[in-house]
Design brief:
432 residues, alpha+beta, 60s Ribosomal Protein L30, Chain: A, 2-methylcitrate dehydratase PrpD, 2 domains, two-stranded antiparallel sheet
Amino acid sequence: MEKEAVQAYLSLLKKEISPAMGCTEPAAAALAVAYAADALGIMPDSIRVSVSAYIFKNGMNVGIPGTGMVGLEISAALGAISAEPQKQLLVLNDISQEQKALAKQMVEEKRVRIEIADTDEKLYIEAVCQAGDQQASALLLRTHNGLARITKNGEVLVDNVAAPADDREQTELPPQEPEDMTLASIVDFVSSVSTEEVYFLRDVISMNCTIAEEGLTHDYGLKVGKSILESSKSGLVSDNLANFAVACTAAAADARMSGCDKPVMSTAGSGNQGLTASLPVAVIGRKLDLPEDKILHALALSILVTIHTKQYIGRLSVLCGCSIAAAIGSCCGIIFLFDGGLENMEIGINSMVADISGVVCDGAKPGCALKIATAVNSAIRSASMALNGLGANAHDGIVTMDVEQTLKNLGMLGNEGMRAANSAILEMMLHK
């Protein structure tokens, strides 16, 4: 691969990896409010946040770090009180107990209102902060930190919506379209990039392994990861490398979805995607005592395949991104660890799509760890089969012999075939 192309892929990797505190959707809502509160310049009396149905669904039941509460109301209040948009998706980090108490008081006094916006945008968050006759607003579009507009008292302070597409600040998907980025080009990149150039991925492993250890050693959520290890002691579940990797990844999700106050390194706008794309590869590589350069290259491959798959299914989708896109990435990363090549990865992806393409997103919550455990199991099984030349083929549903067409079909399933599913899921969640 040419040097310029290698640098482009490195830039994409760095852009799509970022630390995040708590679930990404509440963090994004807090970030939007922080932008508005910062522009207002004083503590708001009231907050109104309008979000897309996708953001609402993903934020309503997830734990908010250090509060013992769930949902968008408390995250919005925390964003207003901290008013530190420069922290981006770490906006919920380093908030004092006094600030948390004030935020809880705002919620209890019903000074925070969350609404579902009438928009076709999947990722849309508009925050309005009011103090007396002073008002400021902020709008995030298309990505979780994609600042589109800030206003104060009717004056536009920032306007990225009207800017030319090339000048927008993080409001679009990654610059490579699916036709420009393929599994083959990703494998080419991984074989071309030097180990020193991917040293920054050490931070991904360190941060995500830390929260995995937290989930394995403490009681969070459904304790999916911890239960897998405990079941291995009874003999119900095998004590092997595969189940250890599943347990570590699920435990990290247990902690994160239940309000653990440790950050994670997200991928393509999702912390759970970051966990699922990184931990199986890192855990298996370390347990096998493989060289660091092998693990880092496998991790780069896993993350880029995750990003590539998300370009087909969308930044937010009715399909579960961490169960599908990130697990597909992990499958390829695991194959790389065992010296598999492009053909093995194509087989592995086809098997993954044949297996778990129907996993839907019904909001962020502690139960996400269940889906992640299932997905990592599938990734390891598909990788193992692919390394032996076995896997799904064109006789298996939406799978084709062209892996890019298989991924395109996966995107069509989520974006067209299941167009009404998100509304149906949200309706069920609101009325149970």
